Amino acid sequence: MGFRDLDILDAYDTDAGSPNPVDHFYIPCLETAVRYDRLAGFFSSGSLAVAARGIAGMVASDGRMRIVCSPYLPSRDKALLEEVTAALLDPSAMQELLGDVLLRSLEPAEIETELVRDHVQALGWMLREGLLEIKICIPKDESGRAMSAEEIEREGLFHMKVGILIDEVGDALSFSGSINESRAAWEKHIEEFKVFFGWEEPCRVAQDTEKFLRYWRDRSSRMRTVDLPDAVKLRLLEVAPEDRDELGLVKKRKREVAPLEPPATVFELWDHQADAVE
Protein backbone atom coordinates (compact mmCIF):
# COMPACT_ATOMS: atom_id res chain seq x y z
CA MET A 1 0.00 0.00 0.00
CA GLY A 2 1.28 3.48 -0.90
CA PHE A 3 0.24 7.13 -0.76
CA ARG A 4 -1.66 6.80 -4.04
CA ASP A 5 -4.02 4.34 -2.33
CA LEU A 6 -4.97 6.92 0.32
CA ASP A 7 -7.75 9.46 0.01
CA ILE A 8 -5.51 12.49 0.63
CA LEU A 9 -6.62 16.06 -0.05
CA ASP A 10 -4.24 18.62 -1.55
CA ALA A 11 -5.13 21.14 1.19
CA TYR A 12 -6.49 21.09 4.72
CA ASP A 13 -8.16 24.04 6.45
CA THR A 14 -9.57 23.49 9.93
CA ASP A 15 -11.85 26.54 9.56
CA ALA A 16 -13.43 25.43 6.29
CA GLY A 17 -14.98 22.15 7.33
CA SER A 18 -12.31 19.98 5.74
CA PRO A 19 -11.68 16.53 7.31
CA ASN A 20 -9.71 16.38 10.54
CA PRO A 21 -6.04 16.60 9.44
CA VAL A 22 -4.82 14.23 12.16
CA ASP A 23 -7.19 11.39 11.30
CA HIS A 24 -7.53 12.01 7.56
CA PHE A 25 -3.94 12.94 6.67
CA TYR A 26 -1.31 12.69 9.36
CA ILE A 27 -1.89 9.25 10.85
CA PRO A 28 -2.67 7.42 7.56
CA CYS A 29 0.36 8.97 5.85
CA LEU A 30 2.76 8.12 8.67
CA GLU A 31 1.41 4.58 8.84
CA THR A 32 2.12 4.24 5.12
CA ALA A 33 5.51 5.98 5.11
CA VAL A 34 8.90 4.32 5.50
CA ARG A 35 10.71 7.68 5.76
CA TYR A 36 9.65 10.94 7.40
CA ASP A 37 11.66 14.19 7.53
CA ARG A 38 10.27 17.07 9.57
CA LEU A 39 11.10 20.71 10.37
CA ALA A 40 9.15 20.99 13.58
CA GLY A 41 9.40 24.27 15.47
CA PHE A 42 10.28 23.93 19.15
CA PHE A 43 11.54 20.86 21.02
CA SER A 44 9.26 19.56 23.77
CA SER A 45 7.92 16.20 24.86
CA GLY A 46 4.43 17.22 23.75
CA SER A 47 5.66 18.40 20.35
CA LEU A 48 7.64 15.21 19.82
CA ALA A 49 4.55 13.22 20.73
CA VAL A 50 2.44 15.03 18.15
CA ALA A 51 5.22 14.66 15.58
CA ALA A 52 4.81 10.92 16.09
CA ARG A 53 1.02 10.65 16.01
CA GLY A 54 1.13 8.01 13.27
CA ILE A 55 4.28 6.38 14.56
CA ALA A 56 2.70 2.98 15.35
CA GLY A 57 2.66 2.15 11.65
CA MET A 58 6.24 3.34 11.18
CA VAL A 59 7.42 1.27 14.15
CA ALA A 60 5.76 -1.82 12.69
CA SER A 61 7.48 -1.33 9.33
CA ASP A 62 10.83 -0.15 10.74
CA GLY A 63 10.27 3.27 9.19
CA ARG A 64 12.85 6.01 9.74
CA MET A 65 12.38 9.56 11.02
CA ARG A 66 14.57 12.67 11.02
CA ILE A 67 13.45 15.73 13.00
CA VAL A 68 14.96 19.23 13.12
CA CYS A 69 13.62 21.47 15.89
CA SER A 70 14.69 24.45 18.00
CA PRO A 71 15.35 24.85 21.73
CA TYR A 72 12.86 26.95 23.66
CA LEU A 73 14.91 29.88 24.97
CA PRO A 74 12.77 32.41 26.88
CA SER A 75 13.72 36.08 26.41
CA ARG A 76 13.49 36.68 30.18
CA ASP A 77 16.47 34.36 30.69
CA LYS A 78 19.09 36.77 29.33
CA ALA A 79 21.95 34.89 30.94
CA LEU A 80 20.94 31.71 29.11
CA LEU A 81 20.73 33.55 25.78
CA GLU A 82 24.24 34.93 26.37
CA GLU A 83 25.54 31.44 27.21
CA VAL A 84 24.01 29.97 24.05
CA THR A 85 25.46 32.80 21.94
CA ALA A 86 28.91 32.23 23.42
CA ALA A 87 28.65 28.47 22.84
CA LEU A 88 27.57 28.70 19.18
CA LEU A 89 31.15 28.30 18.01
CA ASP A 90 32.07 25.62 20.56
CA PRO A 91 30.43 22.23 19.83
CA SER A 92 31.38 20.69 23.19
CA ALA A 93 30.06 23.66 25.17
CA MET A 94 26.89 23.68 23.09
CA GLN A 95 26.30 19.99 23.75
CA GLU A 96 26.43 20.45 27.52
CA LEU A 97 24.37 23.66 27.54
CA LEU A 98 21.68 22.37 25.20
CA GLY A 99 21.47 19.15 27.15
CA ASP A 100 20.49 21.10 30.27
CA VAL A 101 17.94 23.19 28.35
CA LEU A 102 16.26 20.34 26.48
CA LEU A 103 16.12 17.98 29.45
CA ARG A 104 13.61 20.34 31.05
CA SER A 105 11.13 19.23 28.39
CA LEU A 106 11.64 15.57 29.31
CA GLU A 107 11.15 15.78 33.07
CA PRO A 108 8.63 13.26 34.48
CA ALA A 109 6.03 15.98 34.98
CA GLU A 110 6.24 16.89 31.30
CA ILE A 111 5.59 13.34 30.04
CA GLU A 112 3.05 12.19 32.60
CA THR A 113 0.05 12.16 30.26
CA GLU A 114 -0.60 8.83 28.57
CA LEU A 115 -0.52 10.29 25.04
CA VAL A 116 2.85 11.96 25.52
CA ARG A 117 4.38 9.10 27.50
CA ASP A 118 3.49 6.43 24.94
CA HIS A 119 4.86 8.42 22.02
CA VAL A 120 8.02 9.54 23.81
CA GLN A 121 8.67 5.90 24.69
CA ALA A 122 8.24 4.99 21.03
CA LEU A 123 10.64 7.73 19.99
CA GLY A 124 13.18 6.43 22.52
CA TRP A 125 12.77 2.92 21.11
CA MET A 126 13.29 4.20 17.55
CA LEU A 127 16.35 6.16 18.69
CA ARG A 128 17.89 3.02 20.24
CA GLU A 129 17.16 0.99 17.12
CA GLY A 130 18.77 3.59 14.85
CA LEU A 131 15.42 4.51 13.27
CA LEU A 132 15.27 8.09 14.59
CA GLU A 133 17.63 11.06 14.40
CA ILE A 134 16.99 14.45 15.97
CA LYS A 135 19.01 17.61 15.40
CA ILE A 136 18.68 20.99 17.08
CA CYS A 137 18.63 24.19 15.03
CA ILE A 138 19.54 27.44 16.82
CA PRO A 139 18.39 30.63 15.06
CA LYS A 140 20.71 33.67 15.13
CA ASP A 141 20.06 37.32 14.39
CA GLU A 142 22.20 39.46 12.04
CA SER A 143 24.79 40.02 14.76
CA GLY A 144 25.16 36.29 15.49
CA ARG A 145 23.27 36.39 18.79
CA ALA A 146 21.07 33.42 19.69
CA MET A 147 17.39 34.33 19.46
CA SER A 148 14.75 33.76 22.11
CA ALA A 149 11.54 31.80 21.50
CA GLU A 150 9.58 35.06 21.45
CA GLU A 151 11.91 36.54 18.84
CA ILE A 152 11.69 33.42 16.71
CA GLU A 153 7.89 33.57 16.80
CA ARG A 154 7.94 37.26 15.88
CA GLU A 155 10.65 37.12 13.21
CA GLY A 156 9.62 33.76 11.80
CA LEU A 157 13.22 32.71 11.20
CA PHE A 158 12.67 29.07 12.08
CA HIS A 159 8.95 28.79 12.14
CA MET A 160 8.72 26.59 9.06
CA LYS A 161 6.37 23.66 9.23
CA VAL A 162 7.54 21.34 6.49
CA GLY A 163 7.28 17.56 6.29
CA ILE A 164 8.45 15.12 3.62
CA LEU A 165 7.25 11.51 3.53
CA ILE A 166 8.29 8.59 1.32
CA ASP A 167 6.38 5.32 0.98
CA GLU A 168 7.68 1.82 0.29
CA VAL A 169 7.34 2.16 -3.51
CA GLY A 170 9.38 5.38 -3.53
CA ASP A 171 6.55 7.88 -3.97
CA ALA A 172 7.06 11.09 -2.02
CA LEU A 173 4.79 13.84 -0.77
CA SER A 174 5.39 16.96 1.27
CA PHE A 175 3.25 19.36 3.25
CA SER A 176 3.78 22.90 4.49
CA GLY A 177 1.68 25.68 5.98
CA SER A 178 0.80 27.18 9.33
CA ILE A 179 0.56 23.89 11.19
CA ASN A 180 3.16 23.49 13.94
CA GLU A 181 4.20 20.45 15.96
CA SER A 182 2.06 21.07 19.01
CA ARG A 183 -1.04 19.31 20.22
CA ALA A 184 -2.99 22.58 20.12
CA ALA A 185 -1.98 23.20 16.50
CA TRP A 186 -3.24 19.82 15.34
CA GLU A 187 -6.35 19.67 17.49
CA LYS A 188 -7.52 23.19 18.44
CA HIS A 189 -6.06 26.02 16.39
CA ILE A 190 -7.41 27.27 13.07
CA GLU A 191 -4.67 26.00 10.80
CA GLU A 192 -4.05 25.24 7.15
CA PHE A 193 -1.46 23.44 5.09
CA LYS A 194 -0.95 22.37 1.49
CA VAL A 195 0.00 18.88 0.35
CA PHE A 196 2.19 18.30 -2.70
CA PHE A 197 2.38 14.95 -4.44
CA GLY A 198 5.75 14.02 -5.93
CA TRP A 199 4.16 12.17 -8.85
CA GLU A 200 2.21 15.32 -9.80
CA GLU A 201 4.40 18.23 -8.61
CA PRO A 202 7.96 16.89 -8.26
CA CYS A 203 9.45 20.40 -8.14
CA ARG A 204 7.39 21.31 -5.07
CA VAL A 205 8.50 18.21 -3.18
CA ALA A 206 12.10 18.79 -4.27
CA GLN A 207 11.96 22.36 -2.90
CA ASP A 208 10.68 21.15 0.48
CA THR A 209 13.34 18.43 0.55
CA GLU A 210 16.03 21.05 -0.12
CA LYS A 211 14.72 23.17 2.75
CA PHE A 212 14.95 20.26 5.15
CA LEU A 213 18.45 19.27 4.04
CA ARG A 214 19.70 22.86 4.30
CA TYR A 215 19.06 22.83 8.05
CA TRP A 216 19.84 19.16 8.60
CA ARG A 217 23.30 19.62 7.06
CA ASP A 218 24.00 22.91 8.90
CA ARG A 219 24.15 24.94 5.67
CA SER A 220 22.04 27.91 6.71
CA SER A 221 23.67 31.32 7.18
CA ARG A 222 21.21 32.28 9.92
CA MET A 223 21.08 29.01 11.84
CA ARG A 224 23.44 26.66 13.64
CA THR A 225 22.46 22.98 13.57
CA VAL A 226 23.94 20.59 16.13
CA ASP A 227 23.39 16.95 17.07
CA LEU A 228 20.96 16.06 19.83
CA PRO A 229 22.96 16.16 23.10
CA ASP A 230 23.97 12.80 24.53
CA ALA A 231 22.22 13.56 27.83
CA VAL A 232 18.91 13.98 25.99
CA LYS A 233 19.45 10.77 24.03
CA LEU A 234 20.07 8.91 27.29
CA ARG A 235 16.88 10.34 28.78
CA LEU A 236 14.85 9.13 25.79
CA LEU A 237 16.52 5.73 25.98
CA GLU A 238 15.65 5.48 29.68
CA VAL A 239 11.92 5.65 28.96
CA ALA A 240 12.06 3.23 26.02
CA PRO A 241 10.91 -0.36 26.64
CA GLU A 242 13.23 -3.18 25.65
CA ASP A 243 10.77 -4.86 23.32
CA ARG A 244 8.73 -3.29 20.54
CA ASP A 245 5.67 -5.26 21.65
CA GLU A 246 5.77 -3.40 24.97
CA LEU A 247 5.15 -0.04 23.32
CA GLY A 248 1.87 1.27 24.66
CA LEU A 249 0.80 3.07 21.49
CA VAL A 250 1.28 -0.05 19.36
CA LYS A 251 -0.98 -2.01 21.70
CA LYS A 252 -3.56 0.76 21.58
CA ARG A 253 -3.43 0.85 17.80
CA LYS A 254 -4.06 -2.89 17.65
CA ARG A 255 -7.05 -2.53 19.93
CA GLU A 256 -8.47 0.26 17.78
CA VAL A 257 -8.67 -1.92 14.69
CA ALA A 258 -9.95 -5.03 16.47
CA PRO A 259 -13.60 -5.91 15.80
CA LEU A 260 -15.93 -4.90 18.60
CA GLU A 261 -18.87 -6.90 19.89
CA PRO A 262 -22.20 -5.04 19.60
CA PRO A 263 -23.54 -3.77 22.93
CA ALA A 264 -26.10 -5.98 24.60
CA THR A 265 -28.36 -3.00 25.20
CA VAL A 266 -28.88 0.01 22.97
CA PHE A 267 -29.15 3.21 24.99
CA GLU A 268 -28.98 6.96 24.40
CA LEU A 269 -25.94 8.89 25.63
CA TRP A 270 -26.18 11.99 27.77
CA ASP A 271 -24.83 15.13 26.04
CA HIS A 272 -21.65 15.20 28.14
CA GLN A 273 -21.06 11.50 27.36
CA ALA A 274 -21.41 12.11 23.63
CA ASP A 275 -18.92 14.99 23.92
CA ALA A 276 -16.47 12.74 25.76
CA VAL A 277 -16.78 9.99 23.12
CA GLU A 278 -16.19 12.50 20.32
* Radius of gyration over all CA atoms, rounded: 20 Å
pLDDT < 50 runs, ≥5 residues: 255-263
Mean pLDDT: 78
* Shape, principal axes of CA atoms: globular
**Strand sequence of the main sheet, in spatial order?**
1-7-6-5-2-3-4-8
Helices, by number, come to 12
Count the beta strands. Answer: 8
Structural class: alpha+beta
The helicity comes to 40-55%
Strand content: 15-25%
Structural key phrases:
278 residues, alpha+beta, eight-stranded mixed β-sheet, 12 helices, 8 strands, globular
Give a structural overview:
With 278 residues, the chain is of the alpha+beta class. Helices cover 42% and strands 19% of the residues. It has helices at residues 21-32, 45-51, 55-60, 78-87, 91-103, 114-128, 149-155, 183-187, 202-216, 230-238, 248-257, 271-277, and strands at residues 11-13, 33-42, 64-70, 132-139, 161-167, 172-177, 192-197, 223-227. Strands 1-7-6-5-2-3-4-8 form an 8-stranded mixed beta sheet, sandwiched between helices. Helix 2 packs across helix 6, helix 5 runs parallel beside helix 10 and helix 6 crosses helix 10. The two termini are 29 Å apart.
Overview in brief:
The protein is of the alpha+beta class and 278 residues long. Helices cover 42% and strands 19% of the residues. Helix 2 (45-51) packs across helix 6, helix 5 (91-103) runs parallel beside helix 10 (230-238) and helix 6 (114-128) crosses helix 10 (230-238).
Write the layout of secondary structure elements.
Blueprint: E1 11-13, H1 21-32, E2 33-42, H2 45-51, H3 55-60, E3 64-70, H4 78-87, H5 91-103, H6 114-128, E4 132-139, H7 149-155, E5 161-167, E6 172-177, H8 183-187, E7 192-197, H9 202-216, E8 223-227, H10 230-238, H11 248-257, H12 271-277
Helix pairs in contact: 2-6, 5-10, 6-10
